[in-house]
TrEMBL record:
It comes from Oleiphilus messinensis. It comes from the Bacteria. This is Uncharacterized protein.
Length: 364
């Protein structure tokens, strides 16, 4: 973990204060005029808010962090749970109606940050040489505790700013994972199972914008290579293993000259024969951040992971808007935090390099 100069400066300043100076020196009061010439901010600040008859205590850490880290297996919230989201702590696993996945969050080969595979500008807009670490950048992390009648009911680790590559083979995800899909009509010509007229429309409409939003959904029936794309597509925020355009959500093309914007509704992971749902496991390196026109990314606010004993609203004190986290372990990727092209949505995102030694597990 690499801490930036702000933290280092604070540590040095504290060390200098402790170790330097005459032990007999006396403190002197500064005049108001002298105080005006100095500004500062606490390294740790504590905020307390009350929302919906609950107390929220946030410990803010004034830090900028650049990190590259790997973990073989991250499994959080491992207990039996019904498909409707209810926990069953007395279940032995043989009961009907249980979630197939054993944990709320299950991320294999989890990583934050990458290693540059060639010389060039990376996702943060900085130039790196091949072999250099391209960090995951975190600004102003915080720990927040939720209490009800002075009893702790939740804790979350969040970031006021986050940008970088999150890598994982996602087997189970509980939380929010909204993905903006933005491209041009020309890209529809590469859609799988497309009817012939999609090719014609893509050629005629060319650079006309197409947009939609994918979320965690139920997958189609079947097995790999033989899915029934007339099933699935229902919102599924608990232990999801698929992502796609939910039933009835719009797939927009436009504006088109003299016509305007046309909205098509998806149905059961299908849009005119084109699959609109995909396994989470094919997206193995995801750029977190606000995508720019040059394909670099700016930090976004709202990334957090939390644990709560009941469904709980976590508030943003700056906007008073809340994210509802379900009981158990929860991961929130903020709206606008991930944007994909159509080809990336259809085909997935390959794993980027996160190790210096090739262990033959696809991380080199």
């Amino acid at each position: 973990m690499i801490l930036n100069g702000r933290v280092f400066a604070v540590i040095c300043s504290v060390g200098s204060f402790i170790g330097v100076g005459d032990a007999s020196a006396e403190l002197e009061q500064l005049a108001d005029m002298d105080l005006r010439e100095h500004t500062g901010q606490a390294f740790i600040a504590i905020d307390q808010n009350r929302w919906e008859n609950r107390d929220y205590i946030r410990v803010n850490l004034g830090m900028d962090i650049a990190v590259q880290m790997n973990a073989d297996d991250v499994k959080l919230g491992e207990y039996h749970r019904y498909e409707n989201g209810d926990a069953c702590h007395d279940c032995n696993g043989s009961e009907s109606g249980l979630e197939a996945q054993p944990a709320d969050l299950w991320l294999k080969n989890f990583s934050l940050g990458t290693i540059a595979e060639e010389n060039g500008v990376q996702s943060d807009g900085q130039y790196y040489q091949a072999g250099q670490v391209v960090p995951f950048n975190i600004t102003d992390p915080y720990l927040e505790f939720a209490l009800e009648d002075n009893v702790p009911i939740g804790i979350r680790l969040g970031f006021r700013g986050a940008q970088g590559v999150l890598g994982a083979n996602i087997l189970s995800l509980t939380g929010n994972l909204p993905v903006d899909i933005k491209d041009t009509a020309r890209a529809l010509r590469d859609a799988p199972n497309r009817p012939w007229w999609i090719d014609v429309a893509g050629a005629l409409l060319g650079n006309t914008p197409v947009e939609s939003k994918a979320q965690l959904v139920t997958g189609p029936n079947g097995s790999a290579g033989n899915y029934d794309y007339s099933t699935g597509g229902i919102l599924d925020p608990v232990r999801a293993s698929w992502i796609g355009i939910p039933d009835g959500a719009p797939f927009s093309i436009g504006p088109i000259f003299l016509i305007g914007t046309i909205n098509f509704a998806t149905d059961s992971c299908n849009l005119f024969g084109i699959p609109t749902c995909f396994p989470l496991s094919i997206y193995q390196s995801i750029d977190i951040g606000e995508r720019q026109n040059d394909n670099t990314y700016k930090p976004v606010d709202g990334l957090f992971s939390s644990f709560q004993t009941q469904d709980l609203n976590w508030f943003n004190p700056d906007t008073a808007r809340a994210v509802t986290a379900t009981q158990g372990a929860f991961l929130n990727i903020p709206d606008g935090g991930i944007e994909l092209k159509l080809s990336e949505a259809f085909n997935g995102l390959p794993r980027q390099r996160v190790e210096y030694i090739d262990r033959g597990v696809g991380l080199f």
